Amino acid sequence: MTTTVNNHLMRNPNDGIRSTRRTNLQSRRSELNREIHKEIRLRAGVENLIRATSNRSVQQTASLELSFINSHLKLLREQLDDLNGSLDVYQGQNPTTLPMIPLGLKETKEIDFRDAFKDFILEHYSENGEKYDDAIATFMELRQAMRRPSRTSAGIQLLLRYLANLYFIERRFFPVDRNIGIYFEWYDSITGLPSIQKTITFEKASVLFNLSALYTQIGTKAEADEAIDNYLRAAGILEYIREHFSHPPSFDLCHELLRSLVELMMVQSHEILLHKQTLETESAGNLLNNATESAYLCESLTHLLNTLTSSDLNDFIPPTWVSLVIIKHHVYRARANYFLALFLLRHSQSDQLRRLDEVYIEDDSTITTDIRVPSTKEEESCLGFCHLRMGLTKIKDAERVMRLNRIRGVGLEYVLQTTKEKLLDLMGQKTEEELDAYLDPPKIGAMTSYSLTISPPDLSCGGGSSGPIADPFHTLGPLSFFSAKKSWTCPKKVILYRKANGFGISVKGSSPVTIVSVDEQSNDLHAGDVITSINHKDTKWCTHDDVVELVKSAGQSLILTVVRPIDQGKNTMSSRSASPRGYSGISSSSSSGSIGRTNTSSYLANHNQHSPTTLEKLTRSLFRSNRSRSRSKSS
Q1: In Å, how far are 12, 168, 396, 510 from 150, measured between CA atoms?
Q2: pLDDT at 263
Q3: What Å distances lie between residue 320 and 71, 83, 272, CA to CA?
Q4: Helix pair 153-173, 114-124: axis angle to 10 deg
Q5: Which residues of 386-421 are buried (b: 16+ CB within 10 A; e: fewer)?
């Protein structure tokens, strides 16, 4: 049995990850999560004191302390928002593109599985748990490494490897009718609030979220094609969580947020495609296509902005995300007008001018020029300057949002500056005062030639170059029978003596082998008993032929160790209320699975945990947006 985790996935001496700014950022996130957890527990204690005491002086002192705690929680939330808005840390080396929004990793605490696993092995499998010390230590080491994966393909493989191990761990140690004393605690990536659950389903969903977050971080620094692939993979995993994980215990796993994050990944993928397209030659046809694609991206950003600022998400989404979406909306609106202005003033062609009738759409909300398809050079120039004026207006709007919300970024400043310079270059001898005389241009229709498809999550085993992941507790027996979801009697030894017709038993099946029939001398055996050893040789993984050969090669006596399956319908344990069904897991040959319903429990124990809106209400009460943030959004 392998006793150490694949070293190239866990400890790469050339990685240098712990010295990077991203690692420092994640460490600071972990500190903030602990501080928020501490303040929440203090708040719960003070609230209990206020309810329990009738002393007015004590109530006043406790109320004052509660106000201090609430102020500190708001301060911690602002610091966490700043961390989620630290976009430059994740960006690549190309300063000529707009910054992308990556997701932060969820934090979790270390868990000691040793006592719980060894006790369960002794109780359920009737084996000495000490034999599995190495396997348990390897799994714990893997989970410890999974908490801080590197921002490379090795980090992806590490998370997939851990998910593959969870497939075996769930089936070996997590029965449906009880808890073995292990609780999984994860901190919310957006709010920092802790959530704790006893089901391994929560562990899977949290690791899947981190897998998608890691894809977004890799995509943020990657080149165009690789970035698009990573964003679509992240969107596929987020959509997978949304579809299969109901009643989420934390905000970052709620369906509304996951839906908005999927939309964010799709919009960012479209941004990269448009950037690639604009690098092509500035022909008349390409300019018109770029204009409609930019308008389509504007419409997508508008819908994304409405989603992020909805009543369900507005109080929790980092302000930097919202501000950046607004800036991008202005930038791409300016670019759409720039492409049409460039077409009309520099590259107009008679055969392409007729396409303008398809480019423009009717819009009664504003007063626009009557020119749709110019018939003279003067009309072309007039319509071109209308677009030029609108483009400069949108760039100024983007710069205003940057100043008001203090958004900084090398790529963002570069894009705004270059777009503004290109627009000013088209002005020629005209001044901005002269441009103010032009009306708004017709609205540009949103059209795209791209069809983006979410990549389904590839959760196959994660073995990478090392091959499929082996069951770390393989020697417990085949999962088809020796699993936590099935029950059997304690192992029983039976001694049989050879007679003229043999030992008087018939067997069938493989891994494990089952007794079909017995003769009169074998009163201690019954049809359906499973043979676990023959003459002290383990036979749980033996085939039918192997067992027959062992019986034939035995002498005059045969020592069998058997267990008898217990009918689950008659098992007293099954009368207990069973936990909801978990998802079917991740196998080496399939990436399918379904995360089932699960009950939640968090450290907010004094509140009603059975209400589906409890977490949302508590989070809103703890982290209410302040006035300055509201002013920034309205600006």
Answers
A1: 9, 24, 39, 42
A2: 96
A3: 21, 10, 20
A4: 40
A5: bbbbbbbbbbebbbebbeebebebebbeebbeebbe
H/E run at residue 440: none
CA distances from 215 to 161, 255, 566, 582 (A): 15, 20, 45, 25
**Rounded to two decimals, what is the model's pTM?**
0.79
Question: What amino acid is encoded at 440 in this protein?
Answer: D
How many whole angstroms separate alpha carbon 296 and alpha carbon 293? 5
Which range is least confidently modeled, 154-168, 177-191, 453-467?
453-467
Q: What are phi and psi of 233, to 5 degrees?
A: -65, -45
Number of other residues whose CB lies within 10 A of the CB of residue 634: 7
Distance (Å, rounded) from C-alpha 401 to C-alpha 384?
A: 26
For residue 543, list its beta bridge partners. Answer: none
Helix 614-622 × helix 56-84 angle, to 10°:
90
| pLDDT value at residue 577 | 36
Helix axes 255-278, 200-221, angle to 10 degrees: 20
Pick the range with the lowest mean pLDDT from 103-112, 163-172, 202-211, 275-284: 275-284
513 bridge partner residues = 531
SS3 content of the chain, % helix, strand, coil (to 5): 55, 10, 40
Q: Are 633 and 319 in contact (CB under 8 A)?
A: yes
pLDDT score, position 257: 95
Number of neighbours of residue 32 by Cβ within 10 angstroms: 19
Best-predicted range by mean pLDDT (63-72, 234-243, 567-576, 583-592): 234-243
